[in-house]
Batch of 2 targets.
Target 1
Amino acid sequence: MTFKSGDRIRVKTTVPTGHCRTPFYLRGKEGVVETDLGAFRNPEELAYHRDGLPEIELYRVRFDQTHLWSDYSGKANDTLIADIYEHWLDPAS
Amino acid sequence: MAESHTHDDHAPIEDIDRAPTKYEILEQTIRELLIEKKVLTADAIRGQMEDMESRSPEKGAEVVVRAWTDPQFKALLLRDGTAAVETMGVDMSHAPKLAVVENTAEVHNVIVCTLCSCYPRKLLGIPPAWYKSHAYRSRAVIDPRAVLRDFGTELPEEVEIRVVDSTADLRYMVLPMRPAGTDDLSAPELVKLVNRDSMIGVAQARDPSSPPHESDGMSSRV
Amino acid sequence: MKSLERAQNDLGGSPAGSVGSDAHSPTLFERRVDAIFRLLVEPPCSLFTVDAQRRVMEDVPNELYKGLSYYELWMESIRTLLIERGVVSDDEVDARFIEVETRMMDDYHARQRSAQKDEAEGGAG
């Protein structure tokens, strides 16, 4: 599934079995795609000396901090950006 | 006599002689084996060390100041950070893509790598120890305002704080806001206002009327 | 074996104290480790990837992860990766380590004796 800027997404809650670049604090969280950053070799494969092909699309995703943390003490308009690989994203309902 | 004979500003004078640590011994061991097996050469190692020394916040500050004073360069910098810094003579071969995020009166970006210590090394050099610490990596995402306060940075309530977690192949740098009252300053004077902490986002560019801090991320110390 | 809980490097939002201000210039040891790492990762060596190094560090025993300094962890991971890639063997590294340790400790003690001798004679080192 390919995403584009403005799409609402939800980070998967899969439990990783090896190297993973989707932080724990983002799993299951909803956000908005800001940018399609292009395709990159899969770090989960590169980590084991494999070639990481086929490349996977990478997205810059924006999250609301008040959504990420139940006790967020900052401002309601604070945000967090993370770069997430396509296979970790589902469309949000 | 200690091993280090370098006297440049970036390296400490290691004149306190002490027994080597386990990992210093391991480093010597591995280095010798790699050289014997012709995987690396002593010259290549020395050259790489010198190369990394040449990458520093001073270079980043020059990039920032050029963006402050040249709108076309700024547009390129925000669109394609790697290409922009290459035009200033920074060798970015084998470097991950550089993404520059702009701080404004409305949005203040702060960069972290919660998963390890990703940092735009090819431009700014080796990151400070605190950037790699458990405390920074844990708290920057959940309480950025408190972390900024740890650095003496207080932002107006209405400013949106945007934390950028470098989770993948891009390396992020902040383009800090140009301080007010700097219209008459020359480029070299402006460069002195931009420290490493402001390019990470835990500080802002220095106001020309306030004195520089001791360890504010500019390695040319007195 | 990967735990079902978060990986030890996955620190975002975990409990922590205030951020310190350690911004020391890299030591000679740190700069050497950094240089060796970069040369092994980049062409022409391209012996392993940054991703592989991260994975190795994520998999070290937790006591090591918490107890070693940043660049000590890097050095440990370089050792592991060189063995994984077949450049050196565990035994080779162990054997050479003992030789190097003896040599470096002998040098250190010789310098200590020389310094004490200088002091005793009332001269600067």
Target 2
Amino acid sequence: MDLDANRSLIAGALARIPDGDRAALQTVYRLTSAKLFGVCLRILGEHGEAEDVLQEVYVTVWRKAADFDARRASPMTWLIAIARNRAIDRLRASRRSRNMEAIDAATDVADSATGADAALESLQEYVKLHGCLDGLASHERAALRGAFFDGSTYEDLATRMKVPLGTMKSWIRRAMVKLRACLEQ
Amino acid sequence: MSDTFDHSGLPEDELLAAEYALGVLDGIDRAAAEQRIARDRGFARQVSAWEQRLAPWAAEIPEMLPPPQVWDRIAGALPPRTPRSGLWQSLAFWRGLSFAAGALAAVCIAALVYFGALTQTEPLVATIEGGGQRHFVATIDVQRGTVAIVPAAFRADATRVPELWLIPPDGKPRPVGLLRADAPVTLTLSGDLAGLAKNNAVLAVSLEPPGGSTTGLPTGPVIGTGKLTNL
């Protein structure tokens, strides 16, 4: 119930931004910046860069709030996608390749993690996604994790997991096909 | 284009949307996908659908409070919005007018409810719960127009204070007052608030900066809600 209340507070504030309501943007910021900063920090791995990108994210939200359609998407999904994309753009632009040796350890940690989170809109969705990810082969899951959480490219992943680029592409594509089929069941 | 399939059985476009949403594309492929999102609504929708599928995964990323100066930088970087023109302005005018009429009606209803409430003597109670926790228990003395709030499992936050809101059936939260994590608090319900504190109205608690929300609406996360019922 508190999650539903938060979701409608965020959606309501987003709807007021196109009228130039700065307080509405501040409301969105207060409700979501801890999550989005976490997302930026996870991808960029460095506070200064994550702060710069977080600033870009909310300026983007200010400019593009009119594009958000509450009937089609949840506000958190929309905001998380903006944060991930801006962080990935920054990562690619700086051409800094992060040290990814921890990929196997990260897989273990996350697979045992529980998903209690204030930004989580539906526990059911999380449980379902996790169930479907668990159904993938472990190398497929590790590749998807590297892309989603670290912003890795096909090439990064191929190098790190020591397979040819073409193999990595077919792993990920096959994994996404399976994921979609599973989520739609 | 969408009739190109690869070995996986999904159309090429669908796979491209998935790759973009996941973030594995680089350089020219990523730029090309972005251009298509801007031009091709169908493709943009496929990307959104994939973002929706993957978003619950972000629950695993821990929240991290950004330093306070980030907001100041954002506020300083906001370009002015171009005011909406012509039709929009008149729409806003008409909306304003209908809002004013609605507000007048609400005042009349509030007056009726308020005088109705004076005759009601049963206390109202609400348990404010969220995230599987019972945070506060509230009791409203309808005759005196006071609300007593006792903290239960509420945990204090170093930087924010709990603020109580009354949400009548119109869905608009009204600020009631600040709460404490360590002691019961009794707040007075001013004029029309007392009239709105009725069976089935909702109490909510949000976390606000010290001193409470300055906007008249919750600005921080809502940690719990509870419906008022007659004891």
